[in-house]
């Protein structure tokens, strides 16, 4: 099959992306699904900071690559061995394919699936190899087993979660990363208890989803932190009780004053070391700091181990919100449908595939929360 896709040929191109155009919309070849794979028509895909981190080189990947890991679509064909999906089913992608039989999968931690992570790091599908080629029949790498910035995708069955057909595709796409990562970090990783206080640092799509998750989970006080005043205003509109501009001189003391010494749970989504340090230092004695940010691999954080011991601190990473996608995505969708998780408020822009570079420039400027490409 020939189709249009947004291909990244080189990382680290100069901004503005509207001029350098790092993503090239071109015709590519998509092979047929193989064993345990499906062909999906993409209907909606979100622009995420994790994609931007590949574009700007902060998250190195193999090139060339079709980006996009937060998407939703319709099953058009099932390959050999697929018994539990059929043509016409609607799905949301999980950007970690869950093999189901490695040790992390068998012990309830599929976000750490060894085979899925290995495939993602190589830029191939879970079953091995490539299904994307350029016009010269040279292989193109897959992004997180999805490559959603395209008209169609061939993915592992283990990368797809069936969803309610009544859910609009542009809403469904949000559950593939922003909601799964943000809400999951609050509920699964931090294990929010009713009445606890929460700090959320870094107000992108994931950070705002975490805010909604903290509200749904019963946090007594939610403090939103960022350097962008417009995003802080948006946080108050979404239900945050207080906001902090982290660039202000007394930001840390302000958080401590609001919470009698620090928050029970600090969550960091900015992907910046200074933001993680701020969040860690704003967490109370005995509290938990959770990070889902992805700074460049060379960036390091310094902490005093004595605080971890004497104050019984916890510093923990969260990947895909520590979710079990087949369990959590339908559960979060049900919360949305009941009105308790209004994720539609995360959408700020809709655009076409041809506008993708403009969208990523807007994201890099901090002028968007979630932008959705519709096909």
Topology:
Blueprint: E1 2-8, H1 17-20, E2 23-30, E3 37-47, H2 49-55, E4 65-66, E5 70-78, E6 90-93, H3 103-106, H4 114-122, E7 132-133, E8 139-142, E9 152-156, E10 160-162, H5 169-172, H6 178-189, E11 197-201, H7 205-216, E12 221-226, H8 229-238, E13 242-245, H9 251-258, E14 263-268, H10 273-281, E15 283-291, H11 305-310, E16 314-317, H12 325-337, E17 347-351, H13 356-364, E18 370-374
Parallel strand pairs: 4-8, 11-12, 11-14, 12-13, 14-15, 15-16, 17-18
Antiparallel strand pairs: 1-2, 1-4, 2-7, 3-5, 3-9, 3-18, 5-6, 6-10, 7-8
Helix pairs in contact: 6-7, 6-12
Gist?
The protein is 29% helix and 26% strand. It is of the alpha/beta class and 375 residues long.
Task: Describe it.
Helix 6 (178-189) crosses helix 7 (205-216) and helix 6 (178-189) packs across helix 12. The protein is built from 13 helices and 18 strands. Strand 11 (197-201), helix 7 (205-216) and strand 12 (221-226) form a beta-alpha-beta unit. Strands 3, 5, 6, 9, 10, 17 and 18 form a seven-stranded mixed β-sheet that branches. It has helices spanning 17-20, 49-55, 103-106, 114-122, 169-172, 178-189, 205-216, 229-238, 251-258, 273-281, 305-310, 325-337, 356-364; strands spanning 2-8, 23-30, 37-47, 65-66, 70-78, 90-93, 132-133, 139-142, 152-156, 160-162, 197-201, 221-226, 242-245, 263-268, 283-291, 314-317, 347-351, 370-374. 29% of the residues lie in helices and 26% in strands.
User: Would you count the extended β strands for me?
Assistant: 18
Strand percentage: 25-35%
Largest sheet: 7 strands, mixed
Task: Write down the Rg.
Answer: 20 Å
Helix and strand content put the structural class at alpha/beta
Distance between the termini: 17 Å
Mean pLDDT: 97
Shape: globular
Task: Report low-confidence residues grouped into runs of 5 or more.
Answer: none
Roughly what percent helix?
25-40%
Number of helices: 13
